What we know:
The protein is 49% helix and 13% strand.
Amino acid sequence: MAIQIALLPGLLCDGAVWSEQVSALSALGKCFIPDYAVLDSIGAMADHVLAAVGSERVLVAGHSMGGRVAFEVCRRAPERIAGLALLDTGYQVRPAADAGECERAQRLALLELAPKKGMRAMGEQWSPGMVHSDRLDSDVCHAILDMMERSTPEKFAAQINALLNRPDATALLDEIRCPTMLVCGREDRWSPLARHEEMQARIPASRLRAIEHSGHMSTMERPADVSAALLEWAKWSMEQETVDG
């Protein structure tokens, strides 16, 4: 049984972030990777995904900001989701008070830098926290910078707005009933493993796979390990579809 698989990229990411996973999953179904263009809210991105995949049931995987979009897709159309995969992501709203203002200031500082110095220069300042410390001058890191350079300050501004005003998915965790795979780089400093453990404890039908020797960009840092986890998830979800169908 073939099924459509939506792979949702994160902030300033494009199809390159899912390249290895598309190769692994394409034998099971048709892979779709959205371009958010200048959509400036998580809800608008979720609507775009739902419109693009049509009325059939779909497997939805989201990395980083894409995980937040995946949550919103699930909130809006749970009956259409055959399986959910959440990679190196979060579920809570931007915190209040000083922590929230600190996040806002950091994001806006990068946003201000992008049109002045260019997207690659902005990425060079931003990227050290993205990957495992062993990969700071690696081909993976350079590929991430190339990906950022392909984007624009306008897209960056829209996506920063979406993240600063992200919806809270806390209550949704208890309501998710489809097979759900949580994947996280063990050394992810932005979306730590502990947060994924919290999600796994609350989502009824969920599994957690920690990706060793990986930071936030697990799909590119350890592509084979991530692909193995997503193949496990896709087959599990499709088996459940057969049982339920």
